[in-house]
Every structure is written in C-alpha cells, then in structure tokens.
Amino acid sequence: MKLLYFAWLRGKIGKSSEELTPPAFVRNVGDLLDWLEAQGPAYKAALADRRAVKVAVNQDYAAPDHPVKPGDEIALFPPVTGG
Amino acid sequence: MKLLYFAWLRGKIGKSSEELTPPAFVRNVGDLLDWLEAQGPAYKAALADRRAVKVAVNQDYAAPDHPVKPGDEIALFPPVTGG
Amino acid sequence: MIRVQAEDFDVGAELARLTTGRTDVGGVASFVGVVRASSAAGDLQAMTLEHYPGMTEKRLAEIEAEALSRWSLTGSVIIHRYGRLLPGERIVLVATASSHRQAALESCQFLIDWLKTRAPFWKLEETAAGGQWVEARESDDHAAERWRKP
Amino acid sequence: MIRVQAEDFDVGAELARLTTGRTDVGGVASFVGVVRASSAAGDLQAMTLEHYPGMTEKRLAEIEAEALSRWSLTGSVIIHRYGRLLPGERIVLVATASSHRQAALESCQFLIDWLKTRAPFWKLEETAAGGQWVEARESDDHAAERWRKP
Fold first, then answer.
1. How far is residue B1's CA from residue B15's CA, in Å, rounded to a whole number?
2. Are D11 and C12 in contact (CB < 8 Å)?
3. Is the Cβ–Cβ distance between C18 and C95 less than 8 Å?
4. Which of A76, A81, A77 is nearest to A32 (CA)?
5. Taking the CB of the first residue and of the last residue of chain B, which one, N or C, has fewer CB atoms within 10 A?
6. In this complex, how many residue pairs, one in chain A and one in chain D, have their CB atoms less than 8 Å apart?
C-alpha cells in the first residue's frame, strides 16, 4: 500500500511517501499505526501522540477500525489548519 | 417647521415637502400628526394607519412624545425597506 | 466608510481597499444585495430606491459606528445605491475586515440586518401591474432584534 | 465551483460570476481569508500552505455539496490557495449566492467553518525563530460543531 505523510508527520518521518507491504495481521487503520510505530525511532516519534494523527484511506477520513488492504492510498497527517 | 414626506406618504399627501406653521398647542410629534390629519382628506388618508407612519425630527427617529418646535425638519415615512 | 450614491460600485476594488497596505487583516466578510426579477408582486421590471438625503447618511454612519464599537474591526464599508435599478443590478454592499474571521462575519451580518430596518430607504417595485411600494417584513425586524443588547 | 491553486484570485470577478446573466440572485455573501503578519508564534515573515492534492479537492467539493443541500443557493465558489504566501496575501475565498440574504450569509459562514476543520490544508508559519506548524484550534472545532445536524 502507498503511505503519504503531511505537515510535521512528513518532517518527523523524514519522507513524504513510501510504498509499504505490512504483514497480514494488519487489517485496519489501528493495526497499521501500531505496526508502523515499531518500524524505527522516526516512526515512533511521529506516532507517539496518537490523538494528533489523522488518517485518510483512499482520500476519505478513516477511523481506527477502518479496514486497510493492498493497493490502498493511506495518508497520515495532523489535524487540519487551513482556511 | 419643514415637513418632508417619503414613499407612499409622499404619494398620498401629494407633495414631497412643505413649510407649515402649526398652532401653539402642537408641542410634540403626536400633536403634530393629530393636527396634520385634520388638514384635509389627503392628510387624513395618509395618516389613517398611524402604526404605518414613522417620524424623524431633525433626521433622528422620534417617538410620539418627542417635542417639535419652529425650525425643525420633520419627516414622515413608512417603515423602511432598504438593503 | 459609508457612501450613498446612484452609481454602481466596484466590489473587488472596495474589498481590496480594506486590505491594501496593511498586514493586520485576517479576514474580510461581505454581502452584496442584488435586485431580483421576481417579487411578491410578480415579475419585476425595475426597482426604484428612494432615500432621505442627509438622514440616510447619518443613520448609516451611526450603524457603522455601532459595529465598530461592538467588534474589533480593522475597517468597514457600506455603500447603498438609490434611484431606478434593473433586475440583476447591485443595490448594496456591506463589508467588514478584522484580524479574526468571526468578528468580520458577525459584524457583516449585523450591518445588513440593522441597515434593513434602520436606514431610511424605500423600495418601489415596478411590475406589469404598475408601481407598488414594498412593505416592511416582520422577518427583517426579527433579524435586527437579535442584535439588540439586553 | 471549487478551485485549489497556487495563484492569487480576483475577488471581484469571482463574485460577479455568481450574478452575471441571471436575475434570481438576491444576495451574495463572501469571506476572504488573508495572511496576518502577527501570529501566536510572533511576527510572521511568510506562511506556507501544504495540501493533499486529490483529497483536498474531494473534501472541498463535498463541503460545497453539503451547503447546496442545506440551503437554497443559486451558486457558490470556494477557492483555496497553497504554497508560500506573504502577510497581506489572500488565502481563501468562499462565496454563496441565493435569492434570500439569510441563506447566502448562513451558508457562507458554514463553508468557512467546515473548511477550517475538514479540508486537508496545513499551515507552516515562518518567523525569525524558524518554521512552525500551526496547531488546530479548539475554537475552530466548536465553530464547525454548531453546524452538525442532530
């Protein structure tokens, strides 16, 4: 699946996107964040405050129980501040 | 005093302004309207529905007990409908 | 700034004036009133706005001053036309600028609500049936009432 | 109509587009957001707006569709810029047109409130101390919440 990172999440993780293939037990957004957090100190720092991380799956806002699957575009970003 | 009439009050009274010298007992807006109403059928028709007549004395909205005196500019008009 | 005039106005230029050369403005809210072709009286051919020269300017200045006292604004403008206007023509512009969006949006709503019930303008609608003075609407009174201070 | 772009926009032209060639519009409400020079972080040198190409357009279209379903509007426009902007520069325009002023004013407020909490944009403020991401404000959440349907 394709991961996208925005704003300070992009800064902390150190890239704006990457192609990842999580293991099979990653079935939803919550699983994905748990797994990502274990991928190294940069991810751990970025995801430490889970309330500050919003997720979109295929460009729709998604809750932790939203399913994820190969081919999805999954974006992680802080609460929005436009307007 | 100078009387000004606007919108349908101007139409009913048949003029947009006039100089009038009411008798001494006319001391406030209410007195003035009572006296005006007796000045002929056009005035009577225009002032029949007193709630539909708003008054300004020297360009400030004025209640019936607002004093009037020689030299005042007194305007009669229906409720406003601008904007 | 208030203006009462027969001529049309340039909305873009008026709004730009509220921000040009300054960097303390966070938002500009505006409302433009336009002549509609359909009215309670039927299909409108034109609308004539009568006003009370002198008092109209005085009341608009007063309404603007009230907005400036209630909200922290960096600027405001009220332009109201008079005379004969055709459907689609602009009647009025109210615009407010502030460092904060909510102050701009609220005060803009306040200005148009108060203007509708306090500024001496009267609308005459021309339809195929002739000219007819528009009656004041209770809903406008209610809209203005909600801004009354306790 | 929604647009997400780096370039500035012409407010007068955008508002005129909502009324040109039609006579069913009674009012056009608008809000223009502008970069302020002072922020919580200090004096601002610039602000950079990051967005999520694709999702941003999708969310804005959704927010506009929601406004069109809640109010009887004759037209609407949302334009949001991205990239590096200097103090005094325009960030966003929302405008709504309706036969009735209240529908235009309310839906304009709704659009800017929802846009602030739902459209994927992030502001990076540049001050003498460096760049700092703006934190979401609770007051913006509250402003958006009041439009939630029961």
1. 15
2. yes
3. yes
4. A76
5. N
6. 70
pLDDT, average across residues C86-107: 97
Beta-carbon count within 10 A of A18 CB: 11
Q: Do residues C67 and C76 touch, judged by C-beta distance below 8 A? A: yes
- Assess contact for D36 and C19: CB atoms under 8 A: no
pLDDT, tens only, D72-89: 999 999 999 999 999 999
Q: How many whole angstroms separate alpha carbon D94 and alpha carbon D76?
A: 8
**To which H or E segment does residue A35 belong?**
helix A29-37
Residues from chain D that touch C75, judged by Cβ atoms under 8 A, are none
Cβ separation of A80 and D122 shorter than 8 Å?
A: yes
pLDDT over 90 (residue D141): no
Q: Long-range contacts: A52-61, Cβ < 8 Å, 24+?
A: A52/A78, A52/A79, A53/A9, A53/A77, A53/A78, A54/A78, A54/A79, A54/A80, A55/A29, A56/D52, A56/D55, A56/D120, A57/A29, A59/D52, A59/D54, A59/D55, A59/D58, A59/D59, A60/D58
Which residue in the set C49, C133, C137 is minimally distant from B82, CB to CB? C49
The predicted model gives A48-71 an average pLDDT of: 96
Question: What is the value of ipTM here, to two decimals?
Answer: 0.94
Q: Are B30 and B65 in contact (CB under 8 A)?
A: yes
- Report yes or no: A36 and A43 within 8 Å, Cβ to Cβ: yes
Task: Please report, to the nearest 10 degrees, the dihedral formed by the alpha carbons of residues C81, C87, C93, C99 taken in order.
Answer: 180
> What HEC string does chain C produce?
CEEEECCCCCHHHHHHHCCCCCCCCCEEEEEEEECCCEECCEECCEEEEEECCCHHHHHHHHHHHHHHHHCCCCEEEEEEECEEECCCCEEEEEEEEECCHHHHHHHHHHHHHHHHHHCCEEEEEEECCEEEECCCCHHHHHHHHCCCCC
- Residue among D145, D60, D35, D57 nearest D111 (CA): D60
Average pLDDT estimate for A44-62: 96
